[in-house]
Amino acid sequence: MASYSISGQLRKHEIPGRVTLVNGNGGLPKINITTKASTAEIYLNGAHVTGFQKNGEPPLLFMSAKSWFAPGKPIRGGVPICFPWFGNRDGEPSHGFARIVEWQLVKTAAAPDRAVTLTFALPQIPGRDDWKNLRRNLS
Question: pTM, whole model, 2 decimals?
């Protein structure tokens, strides 16, 4: 299993006790989020939400045992981004290219009530200039 270095640029987005960056499955960068009411996990690969659990309750998301945790491969289960299309296209990745690229973590914020907001951006991808301004906010 490869382990990818979590850069200082990413580490600056950590919020002690709320947002932590770790090496997840396959060594891919993963964000662990803790709020007053729940926990969640998001992989930068596809900005994919792979876990959500309210405190004291079972996990709410299903993850396939067939998930690949590797760069350029889709994660199966959880909450994926299917963009800019859903389904298959000749010569293109199923459910779009946004699902298989490493997104940029742009900003994190925490409110006094322990709510957390993360902002992701789709990186510039050669030949995909039309999509360069896509952002995903999660709170």
Answer: 0.82
